[in-house]
């Protein structure tokens, strides 16, 4: 094989959409190009051996915040054992602040931004001359109509075992400074009929799990309705074999027509990922996030009370201008609205994002190593930030996992953030760990905590036992079988070293 397209995915179930876009748009080089994906944690020598087996002349790597360290090692090793193989990099992690990065210094070429058009051009020059003069190439951004959609490149194996990422649009018109999409000028839609035709084919091939990576699904309501109708038609035609769709939405824009559509989805078929990030108006202004908090809260409550959609809502701790008290206020406000999951993320400094303009004024201190997590601000010191990090981890284990559905309200009571923080601090002082805590042990610890808080020992044991025995009658546990598979996927995602929020912020660039 002459050209290999490769990346290290965060998990096996994450099939790379970016690599498939590149392959779909290779033109007459497509026949000599192949995808070879790995999963982070694989041995560098094993990956290098596999890549070199087909004697490629060019290897293109998709570099992301979650794989940059391992990809750097892989490229370094390849350059030692096979220096003749030309290495071309692309992806959001290397598209900004490029020259200072070791991986860029090791590689032969770099394509910043969109790679769909520029990668095949650079490959042609490498293979047939004249050799590219420049090392760094700014990726050309073509009209989306000129791109070939990649969905036929999902293999039967992908369809059977992996999450299928799809996109009806690229880009975002908003400018939240912590997000890579803030650099987009706007959102660009694909031809909707063509896109739905691709979904139709995927569905006919057996695909049932569709995850939209559109930054904002509900920007263009006409398109949103048409896409939702596609899924509703499938659900009506095949109720015994339902589809499942996942969308990212902005919370303050839910017109009645969209609500009507949402209401029609049965339980276990629709998930919304909703970014709140912060309810603090001062913080929102600082990071240029435009959000009508009242409308957003009203819509989240409406979704909880009137739809079967599973709501996964994001908050970010560590934003400039936010202190622990104001974050706690936002957390409690959000919890009261009743979403199924709160994804509590810690701010990351994604390369290229404008958030760094606040570094001096707000004392932002970021970890210099990926994923560049915030360590302290002028309002949250290092120790408090560490407490928040542990809170997030225990929140995943106890609340988001759904394993303590009956017990959780007894932990949270009237002041949820404060109470869970105390539990979190106690768990850490007792175990000195935030991971590798077996469920059995966690259940014992939670029971102990309830007793320490004054609960009757037998009552505490009973409520924890009812959850632990899997009797919690949570929404998730009573939904359709395929939803269980989705949940398992989500739990697996929660175990990733990076929060889904970070990955979502980072993955919008196709390659
Ligand atoms: S956080 Fe969401 S709304 Fe804001 S720029 Fe990023 S994708 Fe757009």
Automatic annotation (TrEMBL):
<dbReference type="Pfam" id="PF04055">
    <property type="entry name" value="Radical_SAM"/>
</dbReference>
<dbReference type="Pfam" id="PF02310">
    <property type="entry name" value="B12-binding"/>
</dbReference>
<protein>
    <submittedName>
        <fullName>DUF4080 domain-containing protein</fullName>
    </submittedName>
</protein>
<dbReference type="InterPro" id="IPR058240">
    <property type="entry name" value="rSAM_sf"/>
</dbReference>
<keyword id="KW-0411">Iron-sulfur</keyword>
<dbReference type="InterPro" id="IPR025288">
    <property type="entry name" value="DUF4080"/>
</dbReference>
<keyword id="KW-0949">S-adenosyl-L-methionine</keyword>
<dbReference type="InterPro" id="IPR051198">
    <property type="entry name" value="BchE-like"/>
</dbReference>
<dbReference type="Pfam" id="PF13311">
    <property type="entry name" value="DUF4080"/>
</dbReference>
<feature type="domain" description="B12-binding">
    <location>
        <begin position="1"/>
        <end position="133"/>
    </location>
</feature>
<feature type="domain" description="Radical SAM core">
    <location>
        <begin position="158"/>
        <end position="397"/>
    </location>
</feature>
<keyword id="KW-0479">Metal-binding</keyword>
<dbReference type="InterPro" id="IPR023404">
    <property type="entry name" value="rSAM_horseshoe"/>
</dbReference>
<keyword id="KW-0408">Iron</keyword>
<dbReference type="InterPro" id="IPR007197">
    <property type="entry name" value="rSAM"/>
</dbReference>
<dbReference type="InterPro" id="IPR006158">
    <property type="entry name" value="Cobalamin-bd"/>
</dbReference>
<dbReference type="InterPro" id="IPR006638">
    <property type="entry name" value="Elp3/MiaA/NifB-like_rSAM"/>
</dbReference>
């Amino acid at each position: 094989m002459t050209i290999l397209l490769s990346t290290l995915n965060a998990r096996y179930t994450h099939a790379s959409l970016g690599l498939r876009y590149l392959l779909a748009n290779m033109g007459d080089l497509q026949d000599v190009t192949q995808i070879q994906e790995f999963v982070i944690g694989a041995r560098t020598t094993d990956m290098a051996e596999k890549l070199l087996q087909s004697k490629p002349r060019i290897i293109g790597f998709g570099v992301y915040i979650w794989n940059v360290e391992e990809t750097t090692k892989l490229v370094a090793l390849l350059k030692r054992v096979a220096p003749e193989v030309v290495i071309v990099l692309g992806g959001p992690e290397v598209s900004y602040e490029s020259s200072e990065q070791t991986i860029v210094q090791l590689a032969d070429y770099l394509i910043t931004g969109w790679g769909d058009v520029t990668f095949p051009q650079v490959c042609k020059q490498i293979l047939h001359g004249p050799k590219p003069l420049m090392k760094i190439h700014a990726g050309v951004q073509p009209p989306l109509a000129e791109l070939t959609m990649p969905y036929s490149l999902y293999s039967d194996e992908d369809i059977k075992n992996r999450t299928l990422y799809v996109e009806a649009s690229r880009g975002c018109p908003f400018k939240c400074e912590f997000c890579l999409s803030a650099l987009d000028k706007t959102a660009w839609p694909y031809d909707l009929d063509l896109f739905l035709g691709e979904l139709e084919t995927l569905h006919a091939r057996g695909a049932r799990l569709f995850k939209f990576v559109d930054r904002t699904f509900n920007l263009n309501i006409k398109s949103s309705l048409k896409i939702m109708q596609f899924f509703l038609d499938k659900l009506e035609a095949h109720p015994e074999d339902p589809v499942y769709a996942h969308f990212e939405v902005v919370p303050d824009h839910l017109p009645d027509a969209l609500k009507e559509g949402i209401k029609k989805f049965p339980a276990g078929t629709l998930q919304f990922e909703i970014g709140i990030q912060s309810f603090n108006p001062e913080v929102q202004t600082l990071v240029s996030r435009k959000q009508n908090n009242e409308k957003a809260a009203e819509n989240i409550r409406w979704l909880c009370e009137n739809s079967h959609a599973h709501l996964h809502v994001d908050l970010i701790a560590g934003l400039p201008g936010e202190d622990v008290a104001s974050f706690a206020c936002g957390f409690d406000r959000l919890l009261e609205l009743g979403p199924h999951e709160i994804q509590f993320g810690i701010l990351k400094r994604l390369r290229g994002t404008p958030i760094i303009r606040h570094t001096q004024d707000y004392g932002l201190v970021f970890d210099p190593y990926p994923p560049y997590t915030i360590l302290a601000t002028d309002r949250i010191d290092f120790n408090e930030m560490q407490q928040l990090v542990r809170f997030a981890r225990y929140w995943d284990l106890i609340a988001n996992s759904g394993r303590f559905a009956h017990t959780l309200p007894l932990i949270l009571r009237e002041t949820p953030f404060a109470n869970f923080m105390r539990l979190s601090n106690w768990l850490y002082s007792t175990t000195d760990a935030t991971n590798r805590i077996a469920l059995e042990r966690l259940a014992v610890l939670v029971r102990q905590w309830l007793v320490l808080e004054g609960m009757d020992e037998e009552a505490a044991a009973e409520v924890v036992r009812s959850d632990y025995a899997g009797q919690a009658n949570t929404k998730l546990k009573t939904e359709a079988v395929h939803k269980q598979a989705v949940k398992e996927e989500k739990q697996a995602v929660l175990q990733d070293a990076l929060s889904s929020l970070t990955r979502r912020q980072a993955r919008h660039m196709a390659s």
